[in-house]
Amino acid sequence: MDASLVRARMILRFPFWGVLSLNLGIKFCETVDTHRVDTMSTDGRSIFINQHYWESLSDDLKMSEIAHEVFHCAFGHLWRCGGRNRLVYNIACDIVTDYNLKLSGLEITKKSVLFTFGTLVNPAGSVEEVYEQLLQAGLADNIPFEYSDSGRHNDWSSTETDDQSLQLKWKSAISSAAAVSYPGTLPGFIKELIDDALSPKLDWRQLLREFLMSAKSEYRWMPPNKRFLHRDMIIPSLGGETLEVIFAIDTSGSMTMENIRAALSEVTSIYDSFQDSKIWVVQADFDIQSVTLITDSKEIKEIVGRGGTRLLVNQIYKKVIDEGGNPNCLIYFTDGYGDVDDYIPIPVIWLLYGNDKFSPPFGWLIKYNEE
Ligand SMILES: [Zn+2]
Fold it and tell me: Residue 111 C-alpha to ligand 1 middle, in angstroms?
């Protein structure tokens, strides 16, 4: 059965997934950019299908495999990885996806990770919850080869992970597909999925802490793989180190005192909750204004700067190393009005205060949202 026929049948039998699938083009190909397509993959705009793989599937599996890719897009899996271990994250996404598709009545391939790793977790949870449960089960330390980089279809590296308009498009797509497909009451699991996608429970503070937790206990951070450098992704590798973090605070005139105070109070509370971590606070506007290795959470009282802005990631990193530091990540609190100087070989988080146009050349963007 060809792809358009599969889709037509899906609209009749599984309207929610069928209608959602209309948001994706279908392309048969062996490679996308430089990546091989061995099975299927998606970039949020199209589904890429390997013809041989397609022909090996039964009609029912063709349907569920398309729904599987649709699910990754519709529920934001392409954009939610953040600083997580990508392989474990991919497995978490696939478990959640196949679990929910199975609940919808679709046939799931016997090779699904739902049947291998699904028993380690509660597959009804969010991707983030399942990810944490997989880590607790020790999966990060022994990922079987077939789930390693080369064995996976979740190569989302070509996705613009901060493409806001694409993310918005999918958010409105799930709402309208739900309205069309379930004119009465939404099934509970669909409602939960939609609620989670429309208003993820994680706020910036949680995201930041999650990142620091993983930097501290789970991973040794490696220089990002070149392929991902401009793709807003950080690839951690396994190991253990203590957390040594640079908090760079943009104290230029465009930042409000309120924002600067919020940044400082966050640093203070992180200092208090991450025992035996080393925390550097660097204040910078057009130049570096002060560098402090914190030894007491009340230490930073004076705010210095308030001139023009440059985003001196590289200079700040070098300065801290000159002062004897060995940082493993850098968090930049800024409103993003200024040029980024140069790349550094440790992960960078931009904690951004209300500037939708800022698009950093590397690192991971978290938007500040005061509740
Ligand atoms: Zn998948």
Answer: 12
Q: 338 CA to middle of ligand 1, Å? A: 38
Give the largest CA-CA distance in the chain: 69
Please answer whether residues 111 and 72 qualify as being in contact, where contact means their C-beta atoms are separated by less than 8 angstroms.
no
Structural tokens at position 18: 């069928």
User: Is the pTM above the cut of 0.70?
Assistant: no
Distance 341 CA to ligand 1 centre (A): 37
| Secondary structure of residue 66 in the 3-state scheme | helix
Taking the centre of ligand 1 as the mean of its atom positions, its distance from the CA of residue 53, in whole angstroms, is: 15
Task: Give the residue carrying structure tokens 């220089």.
Answer: 223
Cα gap 368→351, rounded to integer Å: 6
- The DSSP H or E segment spanning 282 is strand 278-284
Distance 243 CA to ligand 1 centre (A): 32
CA distance 165 to 119: 36
State pLDDT tens for residues 336-353: 998 899 888 888 888 888
Task: Name the more confident of 36 and 343.
Answer: 343
Give the separation between CA 287 and CA 276, rounded to whole angstroms.
29
Residues composing the chain: 371
How close is the Cα of 68 to the center of ligand 1, in Å? Answer: 6
User: How far does residue 154's CA lie from ligand 1's centre (Å)?
Assistant: 6
Secondary structure element (H or E) that encloses residue 191, with its range: helix 188-198
Residue 323 alpha carbon to ligand 1 centre in Å: 45
> Which residues make Cβ contacts (< 8 Å) with residue 274, sequence separation at least 6?
212, 216, 243
CATH number of 194-367: 3.40.50
How many Å apart are CA 119 and CA 210, to the nearest integer? Answer: 24
Dist. CA 156 → ligand 1 center (Å): 10
Measured in angstroms, how far is the CA atom of residue 73 from the centroid of ligand 1?
A: 10
Please tell me the distance between residue 203's alpha carbon and the centre of ligand 1 in angstroms: 25
Residues 113-172: tens digit of each pLDDT = 999 899 999 999 888 889 888 988 888 777 766 665 544 555 555 455 556 788 888 988
List every span in the chain annotated with CATH 3.40.50: 194-367
